[in-house]
Amino acid sequence: MSFLNNVLSSIKRGCEIGGFPEEFFALISKPERIVMVKIPVRLSSGKLEVFEGYRVQHNSALGPYKGGIRFHPKLTLEDDIALATIMTLKNSLAGIPYGGAKGGVSVNPKELTQKDLEALCRGYVRALKPVLGEYIDIPAPDVGTTPQTMAWMVDEYSKLVGYNVPAVFTAKPPILHGNPVREYATGFGCAVVSKEVAEKVLGGIEGKRVSIQGFGNTGQWHAYFVSKMGAKVVAVSDTSGTIYDPDGLDVELAMKVKNTTGKVINYPKGVKIPDPQASLYVDAEILGPDAMENQITIENVGKVKAKIIVEGANGPTTPEAELELTKRGAIVVPDFLANAGGVIMSYLEWVENLQWYIWDEDETRAKLEKIMKSNLSKTYKKFEELQSSGKEFTMRDAALVLSLERIYQAMKVRGWL
Ligand code: NAD
After folding, report:
1. Residue among 91, 108, 142 whose CB has most ligand 1 atoms within 8 A, to mutate
2. Ligand 1 site-directed mutation target among 218, 297, 337, 339, most atoms within 8 Å of CB
3. 53 pairs with which residues across the strands?
4. What residue owns the CA closest to ligand 1's atom 30?
5. How many CB atoms lie within 10 A of CB 406?
6. Which of 174, 232, 277, 345 is 20 to 30 A (C-alpha) from 361?
7. Whole-structure pTM value
8. How far apart are CA 99 and CA 283, in angstroms?
9. Which residues line ligand 1 (CB under 6 A)?
10. Closest CA to 222 of 289, 280, 318, 304
């Protein structure tokens, strides 16, 4: 099944469990608007490259569209639709006033010079300007995009309208009205969720072994904060391979190595395993699949040993694999709950920007932590409620029912249903 089909089959299941009408599924299963643009860029080499860009605006029942921009060579429009749909669910569950969106360009940003990357970012904004805006659609970074790319984008948008509009993009560098917490917000949120669930099912996070697949923005900060909370990070991986140490890795050293050499496999200690998937299979109580979609599938789920799977990435576990994990007593904390720290922080940044107000780092992190804990707690309560019926339910089912309920109620009072 494709990524989009996986997302839609989860929503279908959520609609059935929550008892929502067919016509609600008909509305929620399709994006409201898809914009495809061509972005011509004269590269430094002299060649004219015409990139294809997307913005999928999935649903606006709860507020303006909100979601990241992905630069990845394998990005397809169908994946972008799936990611936009997840954003609608995530923003609803988080209780923030946003609908869902996602954008992207199929490009490998690592193959572009900084100058060419800047030109592509500015071209993306010029092409999509009519459908973006601080009250219309507010993008943020995702895979392959960064605070620097957001800075170019916000600058381009501001030039087009003739005045500074910081609130139209989030996760900007702090000097351009970003908030310092945004850099680590997603991984921090994953760590908060890991700790909360570990307290419920493992008696605490202290001393528990954690393995992380994907050592980018999400994975690095997930690993960093769980280690600060007392867990032992035994493995992390990126596309260069997996590093493993049953006695615990030095996470800060691994981050330094990854960020200076580009490859975590250059970490000087522990065991080096060439397979990037090996991090999914090591002995650990908690697993963070924090890289990409479709990583834990029915083919490899038998090798996954963790009791708690905290989905830092979007869509890393297929529905069949998730049911298999649930049958054996493992808990999968779904992506749209686990990795919501990034968008919740983006929301806080947006509120600051709209008011031209500034919160300090500790104050902002405390607000983020409070929202993450409250979302986890209400979802866990629903999960226990569903499980008490005696039937097999996943935590995703509970999160879906809560998230869909909020969207359904908003659509109803708007008169869409
Ligand atoms: P990133 O580009 O910073 O990092 C991705 C990492 O995954 C890289 O280290 C890459 O080498 C590694 N990777 C890719 N394929 C791999 C594989 N098969 N095995 C092991 N490692 C692999 O991206 P990111 O921003 O951390 O995003 C990662 C995931 O988290 C994506 O699914 C994204 O949608 C999701 N996410 C990110 C944010 C955010 O704020 N960054 C927010 C919500 C969700």
Report:
1. 142
2. 218
3. 37, 105
4. 313
5. 17
6. 232
7. 0.93
8. 39
9. 142-144, 186, 213-219, 237-239, 276-277, 290-292, 312-314, 339, 342
10. 289
The per-residue pLDDT for range 59-75, each reduced to its tens digit, is 999 999 999 999 999 99
Residue nearest to atom 35 of ligand 1 (CA): 313
The mean per-residue pLDDT over the stretch 2-13 comes to 92
Q: How far is CA 65 from CA 137, 164, 169, 261, in A?
A: 4, 20, 12, 36
> Would the pLDDT of 155 be above 90?
yes
Using one digit for the tens of pLDDT, what is the confidence trace for 275-333? 999 999 999 999 999 999 899 999 999 999 999 999 999 889 998 999 999 999 999 99
Q: Measured between alpha carbons, how far is 120 from 146 in angstroms, rounded to an integer?
A: 13
Lowest mean pLDDT among 94-108, 235-249, 384-398, 399-413: 384-398
Please determine, for residue 177, whether its predicted confidence score (pLDDT) is greater than 80.
yes
Nearest to 151 by CA among 141, 160, 142: 141
Model pLDDT for residues 27-64, shown as the tens digit of each residue = 999 999 999 999 999 999 999 999 999 999 999 999 99
Please tell me the distance from the alpha carbon of residue 241 to that of residue 253, in angstroms, as a whole number. 16
Please give the pLDDT value at position 293. 87
